[in-house]
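Hi there. Long-time user, first ticket. I'm pasting a complex I've been working with (about 223 residues overall). I'd like to know whether the download I got is complete or cut off, because the file seemed smaller than I expected. Thanks.
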Amino acid sequence: RKEVEQDPGPFNVPEGATVAFNCTYSNSASQSFFWYRQDCRKEPKLLMSVYSSGNEDGRFTAQLNRASQYISLLIRDSKLSDSATYLCVVTYNNAGNMLTFGGGTRLMVKP
Amino acid sequence: TAGITQAPTSQILAAGRSMTLRCTQDMRHNAMYWYRQDLGLGLRLIHYSNTAGTTGKGEVPDGYSVSRANTDDFPLTLASAVPSQTSVYFCASSDSAYTEAFFGQGTRLTVV
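Hi, the file is complete. Here it is re-exported in full:
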């Protein structure tokens, strides 16, 4: 089982729709959580951090459930420009690799 | 601020040749990482370094080596390239387990 798992999609949604992605992680010692966005053939870029209390940035809302070991990303009022791959990232404060990526979820927003 | 810079941007390399992909960051981040990303697949960790002078193996380290002589630079070397190493390579850095990672723009390598 992978440490960080995501549904690869693609999620095909019409403009204006609300879409949600989940990401599960296996290591309960996980420290921090992030959502990244990656456009085709470009480098991943930070979309938002995920806080224990949940956080919102415009049309984007991130939630963390430590008990069930998953994080979620909700996108409201989808835009064509939201089409991308969304990567879940989990960090660990240890002597080994600190950064683990999920495989990504592809979103396609259509007119 | 440059952030994190990779060179070259793209390269075509003959099989059997060696090559070093360069990665430099100016943010004084402790940790640096090398990933490869193949078409339609996720990021796979090749090697990482939590601090200058230390390195560790990731998920797919075979055929690659790294060094971390100082904080800013983290070169990735292919000693004898094979076609299966054709990929897009991303370098990243982060300050700690509590902060975001930043990525370079990637190096597109084709081994023929």
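A couple of notes from our side: The two ends of chain A are 37 Å apart (CA to CA). Chain A touches chain B through 26 residues (CB under 8 Å).
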